[in-house]
Amino acid sequence: MVQASSKKDLRFVIIGGGMAGILSAIKLQQAGLNNFTLYEKGEKFGGTWRENTYPGIACDVPSHLYSYSFAPNPNWSHVCSPGQEILEYFETVANQYGLLESTKFRTEITKMEFSEGQWHLETDRGESDVAHFVIAASGVLHHPSYPDIAGLDEFEGTMFHSARWDHSIELEGKRVGVIGSGSTAIQIVGALAGKTRKLTQFQRTPQWIMPQDNFAFSDDDKQNFRDDPEALPALRKKLAAVTEGGFSAAVVGENPEALIQIGKLCRENLESSVLDRKLRGKLQPSYQVACKRLIISPNYYPAIQHPDAELVTESIKSLETTGVRTLDGKLHEIDVLVLATGFQVDKFLRPTEVVGRDGITLEEAWKARPSAYLSVMVPEFPNLVLLNGPNGPVGNFSLIDVAELQVDYFMQLVDLVRNNSCTEFSATAESATRVEAERVEATKNTVWVSGCNSWYLDDRGIPAAWPWGMQRFRDVMSKPALDDFELVLAAGNS
User: Which architecture characterizes domain 3-143+344-490 according to CATH?
Assistant: First the structure.
């Protein structure tokens, strides 16, 4: 360990004003650490829920679980509420905690370099900042992925990515095409069927779909939530237990019976909802249930069977001026084309230039692929925490619960600096390598390796996700294992 001088007035920079960034700012406030600035590239809070406004957008995690533990909302309209409600929730919480005065909107961090015990940051506005700690809460669902299709620039109709929805375009009376078959495409099709002249979905791979009884909460339900201080915490605890013991445990091999039951529900949903044998065959996946991110939808199967809807499973050959040409030679004439083709989920902090100790860049550290110690720290990048970073529980838990645990973990490390035990901390390369090897080995027990192509898989075909249950994540986040860290000691300490 190296000796260094202590820092008294600790300053923080938070990158991102979505769910995790808002959470981080509030946690700093609660700890009496008010010297921080939150940088948000957009014009307001909300992150994913600000940028994604497509028809039918909703969260597949129950709303009372997809809420901060310290800010329950008695007014959720449904079990799984629509995107606009979720956005309003985050904006409301941010305003309640007075985060506007500590936030710089329309400002993106372009470079950050660790030098002389501090992070030196530059913005796209030509501004600079200096902080002892950086909390990277930039998320992963904000860099749209565009398909590699011949003639993409040839199409003369209206075309946009689902995350860049153009609400000025009137869809009524239009021939609308949707490229994609993931959760976003499923929600869009469910929302638009019957509202266009024709709706054509171009499906590359069919998806297993869980049925959903997304019932609305009554006024009496909401009043009870407001009147009974124990009602919402009890409901949240119940939802967490069901989720963690059921689906979350099933996909990582901890509850095989639950996985069997989930598979049965999905198959029954398809068979009972789609009576046309030919269409059912097109919608029938060949891989195991939950190998890909499981989709939950109350309306997709009825929607794709609407008289004005069409499912195209023939591969796309090219785009032409008036539509989509498939390999069978057919031209599907389209007026408006929606690219529901997902995101570049391996970007994380990038394209921000990040320079750690001794000039090492994040691009160099992640030359092979993104990786982080317990999903939160990268060796040689001191005093930097990644919320919902690489190899985290991105597909099996509520990301709010995950982020709360990660922030509390980080704050324990910050406390070491506050009490002058050290001035810098970073996970060692040895500990990161060991944890990553354990993680890779554990992925062999997950359903994600059962035989499908998924955005969960990295370039090696290994799931880039947390392969254990929530309890293990909760345990490792409960207290940092300091033997896994390099600590720069404060002056006078040994």
Answer: 3-Layer(bba) Sandwich (3.50)
- Residue 8: the pLDDT is 60
Q: Residues 312-343: pLDDT tens digits?
A: 999 999 999 999 999 999 999 999 999 999 98
Tokens of 172: 């009524």
pLDDT at 401 over 90: yes
Among residues 347, 372, 374, which one has the least CA distance to residue 16? 347
The CATH class of 158-216+255-339 is: alpha beta
Q: What is the pTM for the complete model shown?
A: 0.94
Whether 182 contacts 159, CB under 8 Å = no
Query: Is 133 within 8 Å of 416 (Cβ atoms)?
Result: no
Cβ neighbors of 136 (< 8 A, separation 6 or more) are: 15, 16, 348, 349, 384, 385, 386, 387, 389
* 192 vs 174: CA distance, rounded Å: 11
Residue 34 CB neighbours (<10 A): 10
Q: Which residues pair with 160 in a beta bridge?
A: 338
- Distance between alpha carbon 460 and the CA centroid of its chain, in Å? 21
Mean pLDDT within 3-12:
64
pLDDT at 143 over 90: no
